[in-house]
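Q: What would this chain look like folded?
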Amino acid sequence: MKCFATALLLLPGAALPAADPHPVTNPESAFMLGGPWVPENTHQIDFASLPLVNHEHAVVSDVRKEKGVNQHNYLTHYDGRFFAMWSDGPGVEDRVGQRVKFATSADGLTWEAPRFLRPEPPHSGPGSPHYGTRTDQGFRYIARGFWQRDGELLALAALDEAAGFFGKSLELRAFRWKDDETWEDAGLIHDDTINNFPPLRLSTGDWMMSRRPHDYKSAGVQFLVGGVKALDDWQSFPVLGSASELTAEEPDWWILPDGNLSAIFRDNRKSGFLFRSFSTDHGRTWSKPVRTNFPDATSKVCGLRLADGRYVLVSNPNPKKRDPLTLSISEDGLVFTKMIHLVGGRHVDYPHVIEHDDSLFIAFAGGKQTVEVLKVKLADLEAVVMPGRPIVSQAE
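A: My prediction, written as C-alpha cells:
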C-alpha cells in the first residue's frame, strides 16, 4: 500500500496521518481510496468517465405507473434459487401502509411475479384514512434483508410508525420461509431496532449486524452481537462518536484479513465522504469514526468480502447526486484501488451485492421505483484496468 501514499487527500480541517490505515496501529487514517488515477481532491473525480464493465441487466419490479415506491433491495441465494426482497408502498417513500415484497429466480435475471412477503401493517391498509401519508397514526414495514441461519431462510423487516425516522414502536422481526412457499412470523429479533444489512458470522461464532434505535440521530448507532442461542439473544454495543463526529447513517461492515472489523458510515451532515471505524474485539468496542477520502453522495453503500479474499464496495461516490452507481475493489479491505462504473445517467441507489459461482449479483433501485439487478462476471471485473493518471472532471 505504500505506493499510494502520495495520493492522500488533505481534508479541510483535518490532517491525514502519513501511514496506511490499520485497525491497531493507525485507526485514525483517512486513506481509503488510492491509485494513480485518484486526484488529490476525490470530489473532482470524473465519475461519468470511470471504466465500464460488461454486465447483464434485469428489472424485477416497476411501480412507476402506480407512482409507488420500490427500494431497500436485498438478495440471497437459497435452496437452488435467488430471492429478492424490497419495500413496496404508496408514494415515495416509507409511508403508512408500506409492505415488503419478494420474488424468486432460477438464474438471477429472469424473475417470477412479485408477491407480498408481509400482510398490511396494523390498521394501515388502503382502508385507513392515513394510508399513503407520513404520520405517526399509521405503520409501515421496511425490508431489512435475508438471513440464512441454521439451514433456514429468514426475512427481516422493521415495523414502526410512519412519521419520521424512526417511530417509538420500532422493532425488528423475522419471517421464516416454509415448504409451502409462504412466510410465517418467526418472532421478534430486537425491539427499538432497525438494521441495515442482515447478520454476518464472526470468527467467534456469534452473528453481528448494525443497529439504529429510534433516536439514533442523537444516541448514535450500535452493533448487535449474538443471535446464536436464540433469534432474540443479542448484546448491543455503541459506536462512540457516531452522533458527535457525524450523523451516522446506514452502517456497513466487513471482517478484515487479520480478523479485525472495519465499519463505514454514510454522513448525514453531508460532508460528501464516508466515515470509518475499526473494532479489534469482535464488535464490542469501536474506534472513533474518522472521515475518509472516499467520496459519497450521502447514500447507502454495500460492501462484501469475496471468496478469493478481495473486497468490493458498491456505492454512489459522486457527492453531487446519486448517479452513477459504482463498484470499487480492494485487496485488503482498507484501501480501494479500482472504481468501476456500473450504471448511471439516472437516479440509482440502495445497492445490495452478493457473490454466486463466478459472478456478482447487484440489486439496486431506479428512482426509488424500480428493483433492478445486474450480473457481473468476476473475470470481467478482473480485466478492468484503471488509468495511469487522474480521472478529473473538466468542469472542476
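Helices lie at 216-219, 378-383.
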